[in-house]
## 1
Amino acid sequence: MERDLLIQEVLRLKAERQAVILAHSYQLPEVQEVADFVGDSLGLAREAQRTEAKVIVFAGVHFMAETAAILNPEKTVLLPDLEAGCSLADSIRPEDVLAWKKDHPEGIVVAYVNTKAEVKALADVCVTSANAVEVVARLPKDRPIFFVPDMFLGAHVARVTGRKLDLFPGECHVHAGIREEHLKALLEKHPGAEFMIHPECGCGSSCLFLKPDAKMLSTEGMVRYAKKAEAKEFVVATEVGILHRLSKEAPGKTFIPVKPDAICEYMKRITLEKVYLSLKEMRHVIRVPEEVAKKARRALEAMVAVG
Ligand code: 13P
Ligand code: SF4
């Protein structure tokens, strides 16, 4: 089907199904353009909780659709491609959390939302990159804390809050690939640019050493910052899908990807055609068993309540 017709059909089916399309900022531009809401993990979780639509088409990856399903047990959540996974969410198993809990019966488990529902169900609270610092800073000071699964985000949170965190050695293959040498090269080429860095990046603390005024931001934080900052040129260290939103929402400014091949193949599995098929055939419904969802919901609601 040709593109304009596909867009028309998506919009028609969306109305017919009383559906809403929620898209992550790393989605293909064509998918972002048909979405009702485009945002980061936190914004999407909040929007999924707020929407009155009967059906949520989740243009993102599996753990995000699961989060929406956990927060909305009465709604139908669709993921247009079941292969849209996440290397970070795959890096940790429930057994890893249980082993730590056994050794730390008084401990607190903080789970990044980039985890499967079974891992969230074992956590006390969830976080996203947008609120991890705030959530961790509020935790009791006299109990051990296990931060899972992203070690780079965990190290960033430990540095900013001054809290001691046990870190799980997980990483996102896209962000872990963004390293000190990439930043160094861009710093030499664009000495006047502002640097916006996602805390999942593998450059970790070395980027702050190279560029002490670099901003560590979630994807939404980058859009917000770029809109209000006076600078005209920004170096962006995250998945390149964010550039579509940045150029659209902060026109007249220049955004330079620190690594142009930082592409999440899982996010890119969702195409306009798959969104159309998802609405047409009501596929693929994401369901989380209620005994898991009930526990995971507690940790997610504890997160959504902050800020
Ligand atoms: P945020 O959208 O929360 O910044 O997370 C980035 C990410 O990697 C999501 O998969
Ligand atoms: Fe997962 Fe990384 Fe892709 Fe985000 S960018 S969905 S963390 S693999």
Note: The domain at 174-257 is CATH 3.40.50.10800 (Rossmann fold).
## 2
Amino acid sequence: EAALIEAVEEIRELKRQKNAVILSHFYMPPELQVKHEDGGIADFVGDSLGLSVAAKNVEADYIIFCGVKFMAETAKILNPAKTVLLPSFEAGCSLAESITGADVRKLKAHYPGVPVVAYINTYAETKAEADICCTSRNAMDIAQSFEGDQLIFLPDLFMGRNLQTKIKAETGKELILWEGKCEVHEQFTPQRINGLKMMYPEAQVLVHWEVPDNTVADALTGTGGVVGSTSDIIRFVGESDNRQFILGSECDLGATLRGMYPEKEFIVPCIKCPHMKQITIPRTLQALRAIGNAEEQLFEVSLDEEIRKKALVPIERMLAFA
Ligand code: 13P
Ligand code: SF4
């Protein structure tokens, strides 16, 4: 405890000395989500879209990214003049790892002329081959904005199927999908959620787009709930009159929700993203201490300039979309 408090103090001081800001995702452990103005370390806390916009607008010299590698890369793509540091390069993502730029080129050769929507949970070389990016917050609107009867959506198979269910009903468009899966959200099986629904029949169910499609159908029957992005889930809880919720998403989002809505109750099967949990207070401190020293490069996110410029195009299109 005492060591943690000291580390937080040192991080706050180093941020000032080294002109750095900390961006923190909603799936970070709670101690990494406390805002600077509340005595914590985070200058901005958000979902992947919010963090991208925040990264683009950073004026400080350094961005310390408390999230996973594809998010830190996106920050670098959008704001290349800044040095972006990731406290651990073990912070991957099963979705981002599931597909390469070469895979997308093969898909495009197989489906010539079909537009490619790449989920933000991809690496730069994958984004570089896409027409537009999306996050879980704008995926539905972006997918529906394309004319034509086919669309390549990658790499999340379940999210693609969940989008397809809604899109088919409205426009009849066919989504061509990849086989990527989020190793966290794929664990929210129908059995798991249905078991909890039986124990808590009054609860509404909150599921992320990345949850299996056969879970989603069951999850939303009865007391209702929402399938959506992290922000959609947060907003839904705020607007719902219900008091009790079952969360089908990352464990620490449960802690975030409890902090935001202390009067409500959250039933959270605690499945943590092992990648997000690589980021800790001690590692964040190490990254800040490395600034200006030889170890700085161990934390630095660097991208081939050619790839960066190509990947910027679909990200900018996504940001312009809103
Ligand atoms: P959000 O876009 O909702 O922040 O999701 C990021 C993520 O990694 C989901 O698993
Ligand atoms: Fe990737 Fe899933 Fe972890 Fe999000 S929760 S970073 S999608 S593995």
Note: The radius of gyration is 20 Å.
